[in-house]
Amino acid sequence: MKHHLYLLCALLLSGSCAPKTAPTPAAPMPVILDTDLGNDIDDLLALQMLINYEQAGKIALQGISLSKANVHAFELARQYYNAYGTGQPAFGYMTHGPNPDDGHYLTAALAALEADSLPPAECHEAVDMLRRQLAAGADSSITIIAIGPLTNLARLLHSQGDSLCPLPGSELAKRKVKRLCLMGGDYRDGAAPEWNVAQDVEAARTVFAHWPTDLVASGFEIGNAILFPHERITSDFDERHPLRVGYEHFLDMPYDRPCWDLTAVLYTIEADSAWFGLSERGRIEVDSVGCTRFSAHADGKHRFLTLRCDTVAAILADRTRPID
Fold first, then answer.
1. What is the spatial distance between Cα 116 and Cα 140, in angstroms, rounded to a whole number?
2. What is the per-residue pLDDT across 19-35, written as a single tens digit (0 to 9) for each?
3. CA dihedral sign of residues 53, 277, 184, 107
4. Which of 39, 90, 175, 257 is deepest in the core (most CB within 10 A)?
5. Which residues of 102-115 are buried (b: 16+ CB within 10 A; e: fewer)?
6. pLDDT (tens digit, 9 = 90+) per residue, 177-236?
7. What is d(CA 198, CA 258) in angstroms, rounded to the nearest whole number?
8. Calpha distance 244→44 (Å, rounded)
9. How far apart are the first and last CA of the chain?
């Protein structure tokens, strides 16, 4: 009888009543952001989203590179992240690139930060920063989010081996990048050139033709259908917050801005959600004037987003709201 009791206890302890080991939390996703901060206010909203994801432990921002050739854009990226971010990303600036103008909100947002000085940071020309961060990463580990002209990524592909890493840029990206997610193109029939692509058509043609890993594009048509509710700017951000100041300077209030760049961020970090669908695999080609055309191919590395949900605007506003 005692033998049967011992056996019963052993079975119970090994079954549903036994203590279970808690699942191991997923490691933060290593991310590099390439942004033309200053051209549109959605870049600043996207940066705030990524800061929130980092604070929540979902991502680790390895680097932020600027695809706008403007010193104020670079300084706003550094100072904004320094004020609200929690990590230590490297920063990459751009010289001799598109859109050197100040735009509508850069100087106002910078003034709102009231930052007299910054601690030392790792800063390099964007392509050098990208090479450094990729070389330091594990194989197939880093996700790149590109939400501006593709100048920096084209320069990366054209780069040669150096003292830091002997691999040329195309091989370095192939080895280290898990996936490229970008906002760019327009995948409706007969669509005109999309803005990000049109700012550097040759760079876009290079990236879409030669990027060596899987690539997911959020097209103009996706973000254009999702309008950020301006009421959330005034309710979620203090009147002196640089994001609110930037939003109010970009256009005359009140306005609901399309969420082009935010959709690329949301899909990248929450790809398993039901908000977006994906096209079949294929290839995206860019013509000489910047129009994007998709053709299905079973072995293609390219896909583009489709919209499944009509409540994404509220979700984006929630993801952008500063974490207390």
1. 39
2. 455 556 689 999 999 99
3. negative
4. 39
5. bbebbbebbebbeb
6. 999 999 999 999 999 999 999 999 999 999 999 999 999 999 999 999 999 999 999 999
7. 18
8. 10
9. 60
- pTM (2 d.p.): 0.91
Task: Give me the tens of pLDDT residue by residue for the chain, a chain 324 residues long.
Answer: 444 433 333 333 333 334 455 556 689 999 999 999 999 999 999 999 999 999 999 999 999 999 999 999 999 999 999 999 999 999 999 999 999 999 999 999 999 998 665 555 668 999 999 999 999 999 999 999 999 999 999 999 999 999 989 999 999 999 999 999 999 999 999 999 999 999 999 999 999 999 999 999 999 999 999 999 999 999 999 999 999 999 999 999 999 999 999 999 999 999 988 999 999 999 999 999 999 999 999 999 999 999 999 899 999 999 999 987
Count other Cβ atoms within 10 Å, centred on residue 128: 19
215-233 CB burial, b ≥16 within 10 A, e <16 = bbbbbbbbbeebebbbebb
Query: Pick from 46, 43, 98: which is nearest to 67 by CA?
Result: 98
Nearest to 40 by CA among 203, 183, 222, 156: 183
d(CA 251, CA 247): 7
Q: Which helix (H) or strand (E) holds 206?
A: helix 201-210
**Cα–Cα distance, 276 to 262 (Å, whole number):** 13
Local structure of residue 154 (DSSP, 8 states) = H
CB 232 within 8 A of CB 321: yes
Say which DSSP state 189 is in.
T
Q: How many CA atoms lie within 13 A of 311 on its CB side?
A: 4
Rg (CA), the chain: 22
One-character DSSP codes across 290-316: S-EEEEE-TT--EEEEEE--S-HHHHH
